[in-house]
Model the fold of this input.
Amino acid sequence: MKKWWLVFATVSIVWLFAACQSSETKEEKKEARPMDELVMSMGARPPGEFDPRKRWGLYSQSNILHSTLLKRDADMNIEGDLATDYSVSDDGLVWSFTLRDDVKFSNGEPVTIKDVLFSYQMLKEDGVHWDLSFVKAFREVDPTHLEIELKEPQSTFVAHLTEIVIVPKDHYDDNYEDQPIGSGPYRLVQWDRDEQAIFEVNPYYYGEEPYFKKFTLLFLEEDTALAAAKAGQVDAISLLPSFAEERVDGMSVRSFESNDVREVSMPMQRAGGTGPDGHPVGNDVTSDEAIRQALAIGINRQAMIDTVLEGHGKKAYSVVDQMPWWNEATVIDDTDVEGAIERLEEGGWVVPEGQVIREKDGLRASFDLYYPAADQVRTGLALQFAEMAAPLGIEVSLISSNWDEIQTKMHAHAVLYAGGRHHPHQYYTMHHPSMAGIGYGNITYYDNPIVTDYLEQAIRATSEEQANKWWKRAQWDGTTGTSMLADTPFIWLVRLDHLYLVDDTIDVGQQKVHSHGHEWSLLSNIQEWKRK
Done:
């Protein structure tokens, strides 16, 4: 009885609170909020939770709290941040930086070259999310000049320079994520896991003072966030395609192009292997080239865009679509069911009498596809993929799971995967054999010696122009490559448009092409936002 009364009392209090709140109109709620403050919901908790050892910095949202040596502008050009200038030796081995001398952390302490050296050395030693094994030495030339010497040229090193955040040497420890100290435009003043994060302007920021002096991020589920927008409780939310037709007075849907792609990974080795982590490697069906190529040309990507993405997306052909290092020759025609069936039969996959699933030497054309249950878009894409595979005589068994389990299965089973970054290093890690079995690197255990040579030529190039030539060859050289014209370790599906519902009075500035990570991509330039 005591428990029953406790439940009754709690429900009554919530009902009374809601009734009181309802008397305040949506307009009154917004008017009560200062013009230079924002409340938003971008879905997920911060990627890496503000700690670079936990991946904070892998995506462009890190500059909210921190400085990096270099950064990309809205047109994807490299420019200085903590470093005012940099140069690279002709052999590509020595990178020299001139540092600002007027930068302070949010606690008022100066940012010194010692903090820069500590940040890089710490991540090199950690070696989990940042591979800096190619660095030979970090050197302090004088208090404002830094040199980083590499063991060999590394064309993608510039990506690290735009992502690795600078943390204070004297205040970084295992609890850093609870009270992060940085030198970016904002500082974290409150951090309630799974609930909210509150940011205020960093009074010591060296750049132009942001218009918005405070913003709060609420960690809400998509439907709850939409309800909050309708109630006037938030100024902006990330939006699922299924909610794109919702209408909220005073707010409008904003759409931004991305290279955020979804794909199906296809393990390339025959079954029976074991990875360094002890998990199984290989799949006898997905390792068959005819299966992979038939699926690549047989599925209908536009139908996926029209149904799962509600029209808000584009066909995907690689993890580097629309980037300067993308090979446009990798575009393929799809929805070719007849051609897909022909490819399967040429590869020895036939439909036995009275059956619907193809077989080859007694092996059924059937494999499992894992996808994260909590992801609505991937769930929809997985269902569509399986439906489109069926007319080809290929059975795709869907398994709804979570990432803890998927990590143990992803080298032996297909996964509804995702990617897309502002640099080609991810393309390298997804296809180089040295990365097989390491984290989320080469999960398919792909290994083509010709492609490997191209990848190494690209990574060792001393200029971006030279590197791009090799990246493109690795995708397709006219005979072989990682693309769906050839090896097809991934069946690329769609490239998402990132959608947000935003207050009409908010100017979000010039957005760069968004990378993978829908929820926080909009915030990468929040220091430039203004109220119209």
Observations:
- The CA atoms of residues 275 and 437 lie 6 Å apart.
- The domain at 26-44+185-256+502-531 is CATH 3.40.190.10 (D-Maltodextrin-Binding Protein; domain 2).
